Amino acid sequence: MPRFSPFQGLRYDPAVIPLNQVIAPPYDVIEPADRMRLATRSSFNSVHLELPEADLRAGLDRYQVAARLLAAWRADGVLLLEDRPAFYLYRMTTPSGQQTLGVIGALGLPEDGEEGDVLPHEETLPKARSDRLDLLTSTGANLSPIWGLSLTRGMSSAIAPEGAAEIDVHDDDGVRHELWVAPETRTAPIAEAVGASPVVIADGHHRYEVARTYRRQIRAERGDAPGGHDAVMALVVELSEDQLVVQPIHRVIAGVAGPELIEGFREWFDVVRAGDGSDRVAGALGEAGSLSVVSNDDAWLLTPRPEAYEAANSDLDSSLVALAMTHFAGAQTTHRHSWQEAIASVRSGEAEVAVLLRPPTVEQIAEWAHDRRRMPPKSTYFSPKPRTGMVIRPLEK
């Protein structure tokens, strides 16, 4: 079963800087304009660590800048080290009242060549890992948690917080982020609850793989003595309907026109024209969560045929659309986290069509996890996202 341990975290001192000035989204959802806004909000904003910029005058590359900042913030008391190893209970509440409760701790890494009971959730697209590896090597810290889903039923009850939160802050989207330092009396029950069942990685696959690469490097340099490099900081949430908001990741297609795409899709889908490609029709399809295709001129509803499920060996929209896209080897597919962004890509001319997907259900995610199967890349988007800056895990502890 997975190893889940408390750690001595670094947290911002609220007496030095207001916490709403320093939290940031995960690095991989921050656009350049977002980074600029966060960076100018405060010189202590965690984006300066997660997405550092080189200091050419000082002759420092971006990773050296992050390491220097982290050391300086610790030395100056901007970041304070917890006085003991602890678990950190973390709750996110959306403006609509949806809550996600999890616990942040150090999730043990399986040995090389073993999957163990930490299970990847999706296949990953090729992506350079050197950036996150260089940042981890330079700072010696997990700056933000990966997100794991526990298959332990009732885990949410075992980690329910008590009393007022030590951190209580809202992000720019109006999501409330609360964090509690769990008392020592709860350390063993929390570790037992998380360790009772496999943990499925929901978000942060690349950082997870980077953590394993980093451990190999440390072992090659220092031997097999255990240390902070044997684990990665993770937010673990129970895999249950009442704890998760699962959204689809839509596809935008360049290099093929709408009518041509639809003809290829007819092999695997029943296709019905839904109307013109106006914002009114596109918005209705997007809000309804319909499996559909939208161009500037037309919109179509897709209904998968039984043989499509069989050919794809999957019940996921991402699998079915990937199957249909095999007709279009020259097309370029990119991904958008909202239907609004997908439609905007069509309107701007960046893409000819948007394919709007339905989200996998929690039941589907659980079924794939229990079968130890990986979903296709970019099948799920979990929200809201835990914020960088709530707690940092230095690897020397």
| Helical amount | 25-40%
Instruction: Assign the structural class, choosing from mainly alpha, mainly beta, alpha/beta, alpha+beta, or little secondary structure.
Output: alpha+beta
Give the termini distance in whole angstroms: 23 Å
Tell me about the biggest sheet? Answer: 9 strands, mixed
- What are the low-pLDDT stretches, counting only 5+ consecutive residues below 50? none
**Alpha carbon gyration radius:** 22 Å
Oligomer: single chain
- Note the beta-strand portion: 15-25%
User: How many beta-strand runs?
Assistant: 21
Shape: globular
Enumerate how many helices there are, as a single number.
13
Domain tally? 2
Calculate the mean pLDDT score and round it: 94
Description:
It is a single chain. The protein is built from 13 helices and 21 strands. The chain is an alpha+beta fold. The protein folds into two domains: 4-246 and 382-394, no CATH class; 249-358, Conserved hypothetical protein from pyrococcus furiosus pfu- 392566-001, domain 2 (2-Layer Sandwich), CATH 3.30.1760.10. Strands 1, 4, 5, 6, 8, 9, 10, 11 and 12 form a nine-stranded mixed beta sheet that branches. A six-stranded antiparallel beta sheet has the order 15-17-16-19-14-18, with helices on both faces. The longest helix has 18 residues, at 205-222.
